[in-house]
Amino acid sequence: MTTLEVDDIHLHYGAAEALRGVTVKAEPSQITCVLGRNGVGKTSLLRAVTGQHPVSSGAVTFEDASINGNAPYVRASKGIAIVPQGREIFPLLTVRENLETGFACLKRKDRTIPSEVFELFPVLNDMLSRRGGDLSGGQQQQLAIGRALVTRPKLLLLDEPTEGIQPSIIKDIGRALTFLRDTSGLTILLVEQYLDFCRELADSVYIMDRGEIVHQGPAEDLDQPEVRRHLMV
Ligand SMILES: Nc1ncnc2c1ncn2[C@@H]1O[C@H](COP(=O)(O)OP(=O)(O)OP(=O)(O)O)[C@@H](O)[C@H]1O
C-alpha cells in the first residue's frame, strides 16, 4: 500500500497559483525528497497534505483513501505528522510540555512519550524541564521531530529540517531519519534545498520548480549536471 499519493493537485493563494498539477508518491520504509529553491512551492505541497490549505483540484490520498475533505486534526489523528519550517516550538513551554502537545491527536491510553524519542535525541531527556525557547536551533529541531514522533505517525513530513542548523546536528537528524525508516517502516517525505542531505538520505527524489515537478527519479540522479541545473539560482 502506498502511504501517500498526491495526484495532479493545484493550489492557489487568491489568484496566484502556487502548485500546478503536482503529482508525488511516498512509500513505506522510504525517504522521499522534494528538492527545490526558495519559493517554488515546497511548503505549499506540505500544506496540501496536512490540510492547512485547500487544494483547488486534484486528489490527496492517504493509505488508499481520499483525505481531500479532512480537516488537519483528522489527518493528524490518521497518522500524518509535520515538522514545520522554522520548527514552531512553544518558547515558554518546557521541553516535556512541548512534547506533550503531540498528545492532542491521540487517544487517552496512548498519551505517553515513546522511549524512542529520547533514544534518538538524548539531549531532550537531559533538558526536559528547560524552556523550549532556551534551546539552540539544532536542539529545537530535534524537539520538533520528537514532538511529531509523539503522535505515532505513519507519515512524517519535514519542511527544510536542515535550515540554520549546525553540521553535527544535521548528521544526527539524518541518522535519526534513516533509523526510523529502517526500523519502523515509517514513510518520510522531506522537502529541502540542501542537495547533499537529500543525496545521502533519499530513496526517491522529486525536483520542483515554479509550482511544478520538473524531475523525478532515484537519488543518484542528483549526480547528473542536467538534474542539478534545476536547483541553481
Ligand atoms: N500564505 C500565502 N499567501 C500568498 N502567497 C503565498 C503564501 N504562502 C506562499 N505563497 C507564495 O506561494 C509560492 C510558493 O511558496 P512556498 O512557501 O510553498 O515555497 P517554498 O518552496 O516552500 O519556499 P521556501 O523555501 O522559501 O519556504 C511563493 O511564490 C510564495 O510567495
Automatic annotation (TrEMBL):
Transmembrane segments: none annotated. One of its GO terms (biological process) is L-amino acid transport. GO terms for molecular function: ATP binding; ATP hydrolysis activity; branched-chain amino acid transmembrane transporter activity. Residues 4-233 form the ABC transporter domain. It holds the Pfam family ABC_tran. CDD domains: ABC_TM1139_LivF_branched (cd03224). Belongs to the ABC transporter superfamily. This is Urea ABC transporter ATP-binding subunit UrtE. It comes from Flavimaribacter sediminis. The gene is urtE.
